[in-house]
Amino acid sequence: xxxxxxxxxxxxxxxxxxxxxxxxxxxxxxxxxxxxxxxxxxxxxxxxxxxxxxxxxxxxxxxxxxxxxxxxxxxxxxxxxxxxxxxxxxxxxxxxxxxxxxxxxxxxxxxxxxxxxxxxxxxxxxxxxxxxxxxxxxxxxxxxxxxxxxxxxxxxxxxxxxxxxxxxxxxxxxxxxxxxxxxxxxxxxxxxxxxxxxxxxxxxxxxxxxxxxxxxxxxxxxxxxxxxxxxxxxxxxxxxxxxxx
Length: 245
Prior knowledge:
- The protein has helices at residues 15-23, 36-40, 52-58, 63-72, 109-116, 130-143, 152-157, 159-170, 193-196, 198-202, 218-235, and strands at residues 3-9, 28-32, 79-85, 101-106, 148-151.
- By secondary structure, it is an alpha/beta fold.
- The protein has one domain (3-235): 3-Layer(aba) Sandwich (Rossmann fold).
- A 5-stranded parallel sheet has the order 2-3-1-4-5, with helices on both faces.
- Helix 5 (109-116) packs across helix 11.
């Protein structure tokens, strides 16, 4: 079987940019959030996702069938990367993860909430997936199926350096083609792209890291504070830019 890679991310991370990065590889296919419709049909929170009807029309909402397709479909490439949201992994047996490489893509909770709250209201911690991501982190570490943790800030500080390390962990060769792409939409984009992908469609590569302060509402600050320890523990395992002489 060709290599199957899950990028388990929170929303409003750089997951789409990383998907575009992998899409530049001649040996790799990419799939955008295949479990989104499955999640929406079983969503345990009240957050209103834009484009919900279009998502349900465009995707198979049976997650069990989607998992079988992810595992067994011939994508015609040596590797396939599935961009996934951690909170989409609901009411599914996680055993299939043992047959795939699993990368966690993490970001500071304050940054996530600042961005997510501009599109979605009535947010809980579960809507940004950090509690689920932390649970998955612990499970994957225990089972030996955690391939790597990538932090958005550390990746943007040194894209080539961190991507090369990620490729090494995935046992695939790094290529400089992963550092840039053409601006605009990609054919793999999900139907929800018009609501979320405006900035990445304007990009041609990873934007340089810039320190920012986020002025969150009291309610969002409580959520961010509640996610802080989980994020920091995962950050302890993240790939870090290597100092070269």
